[in-house]
Specification:
The structure holds three protein chains of three kinds. Chain A has one domain. Helices cover 88% and strands 0% of the residues of chain A. Chain A has three helices and no strands. Chain B is mainly alpha-helical. Chain B has two domains: 39 residues, no CATH class; 105 residues, no CATH class. Chain B is built from six helices and three strands, in the order αααβαββαα. In chain B, strands 1-3-2 form a three-stranded antiparallel sheet. In chain B, helix 1 packs antiparallel against helix 2, helix 3 packs antiparallel against helix 6 and helix 4 packs antiparallel against helix 6. Chain C is built from four helices and no strands. In chain C, helix 2 packs antiparallel against helix 3. Chain C has one domain. Chain C is mainly α. The chains are: A mainly alpha, B mainly alpha, C mainly alpha. Chains in contact: A-C, B-C. At the A-C interface, helix 1, helix 2 and helix 3 of A face helix 1, helix 2 and helix 3 of C.
Amino acid sequence: MSASQYLFAGTAFVMAVLIVALLGRLIAGPTTPDRLVALDLVNTLVSGIMLLSGAVYDAVVMVDVAIVYMALSFVSTLYFARYLEGGV
Amino acid sequence: MFVFVMSFFVYLLLSWSGSMSVQEVTIAFFLSVAVVLVASSSSRPGFWSLTKLDPRRWWLFLRYVFGPFAVGLAQANWDVAKRVITGEINPGIVKFDPGLKTDMGRMMLANSITLTPGTLTVDIDDNGVFYIHAINLTSSTPTEQDICGSFGQWTRRIAG
Amino acid sequence: MILGLFVGLLLLVSLFFNCLGVVSLYRFPDVYTRMHGATKCSTFGTLFSVFGLLLYSFVRFMAEGERRFLVLFIHVVIGGVVLLISNPAGAHALARAAHRSGILPEPAVVDALEEADKSKKEVAA
């Protein structure tokens, strides 16, 4: 691995730590929208990790997975929002 | 037509790995037709029109994204960073009417507003009036310039 | 080595803004202000990761001429565009749902949407 690949791996690791730090808001959040905002942020960070691991493992497939993950998490956010409005 | 062209080219870009074969293009064509058939079941007026593919609009769009939008994005994050650290906020929801007719234009302006300094789109009603949550409100009836700077003019030029 | 320096700088900016997004979740008082921090900072931060990846794959492609780096470049560009469209749109949907489910912005100077809803109900009644 080259130097930048180690950097990508380190960044992905710190992002994983950030996700753990988020779980407090995800569990405690006083209302449901609070939890959903935290979940949205978790999704963004996970897709960031997936993008980075595409470079770490030299596998473009990981980036494809990240794109699909972003699209699916967007759809799930929309459905959660629809559920909150009471329309499911 | 816009949906067809976009899905066709995105498929080709994603499947390209060095060379392009006839099979690939054929698959892309049929998949795009399938996407258009699915999307057209909830189509709106203007679904088949070519105006969204006008190269002049695309050129304007690129100039917008790499010009004022990029500057706004950087300012927004600097602003939020300061507010996270100092914790000084003065929030409220205001309304404003940008006078956009098309869904594309509304979507673009809403995303731009969300990603730029101190504002977040909360709701758009049927007449295209935006309801915006501002994190630091200076007056209860702000002008367009206060909320989104030059973005309103740009989106009106790009997507009417 | 020089490449590592620039990539590291971009990744550092990315991490800074992602951290800020997480901190804002704990620091701001209500859901709308939290949304400001979470959406903007995480989009901007992840966008900088994307820039780092773009720089890395572009330089590797130019130096070694291997096609897989160009493929990586194209895919990361598409990923960045998807991120830039889907993230604010999702936040907008959540904000709207929060307001419709009856959660009002807690410290708020003015709430035009609430007033509009009220006047609509009065007209209906």
